[in-house]
Amino acid sequence: MSTKLDRRARARRSLIVLSVVVVALLASIIALTSSNSPRSGAPSRSTTTTQHSPTTSTTTSVAPVTSTTRAPSTTTTVTAPASSTTTTTPSSLRPTRNQPSYSDAALSARFAPLFGAIVHNTRFTQQPLFFPEEVYVKMKTGILPNPASDYVFRLLAFYTLDVAAYHQHLGPSFATATLVTFHAAPHSAQWIRAGTCENNFGYWHVANVRMVYKVGTVKSVAIASLISWHGEWYVVHLGPNPRASNVGTVALAANGPGTPGPSGGC
Q1: Sequence-ordered list of residues with C-beta below 8 angstroms from that of 240, at least 6 positions apart, any chain
Q2: Class of residue 169 by CB neighbours under 10 A (exposed 0-12, middle 13-18, buried 19+)
């Protein structure tokens, strides 16, 4: 009897243990299944960091993605053509027979700065109206022993002395002096041929042009010698050449406009 009871008790205990094991196994399976299901609202894990717009239940018409191709930027470099600047000096020009105008209007326009230099007792800057030194040197090379020295110590030296003498001739009222005109005799210009007057090339020459001015009354003096180079007149002797002494000298001063000339010289 007791043996039968023991067998029943052991069977019950085995059943209970089996039940406990089955319950535990089921609980483990349920827990495992629950842990693999995503929770609502939690972001899903992703292997990238790209964020995507959340999917909604509303159907949205999405515009097609257009591919915009940008033209490659181009840099255009415009290179200005190299400029060629040629500086022409008087000595680089060849002698010509171009005769300058010696009308009153042309002479007055050309030599008004000379009158201003006399009024203010100053040489005009760089002597633009005085015969160019480099041309004079070419003209006299092989004829004079030192043309450059002759230009500086004779021509320019006399010109400086003459400007002072003409200024003094205007008198104490020099500041009120006004230019009336420059006047040359018609057809008074002469062509000086190469080889004459100790020159290597020819030029036009006009002598004793009247410079008419007014200081209270009309008066005048002469510009002793103008010579040409490439169609322009230049002063080469303001006062007389030759002269009695090496001092500033006024040529042919007169009351009134005076008379151009005499012609001659070179």
Answers
A1: 224, 249, 251
A2: middle
> What's the distance, CA 54 to chain centroid?
67
Q: How far apart are CA 99 and CA 91, in angstroms?
A: 18
Among 19-23, 104-108, 157-161, where is mean pLDDT lowest? 19-23
Of the candidates 234, 241, 43, the residue with the CA atom closest to the CA atom of residue 158: 241
Instruction: Write down the H helix ranges in the chain.
Output: 2-35, 104-120, 133-140, 147-150, 157-169
Q: What is the domain partition of the chain in residue ranges? A: 90-255
Give yes or no for a contact between 209 and 260, defined as CB atoms under 8 angstroms apart: yes
Q: How far from chain centre, in Å, is Cα 20? A: 107
What DSSP string runs through 63-104? PPPP-PPPPPP----PPPPPP---PPPGGGSPP--PPPP-SH
pLDDT in tens, 166-218: 999 999 999 999 999 999 998 889 999 999 999 999 999 999 999 999 999 99
pTM comes to 0.66
pLDDT at residue 78 above 50?
no
* Residues 6 or more apart whose Cβ sits within 8 Å of residue 210: 182, 183, 184, 220, 221, 222, 257, 258, 259, 260
| Per-residue pLDDT at 128 | 86
Quote the tokens at residue 249. Answer: 């000298």
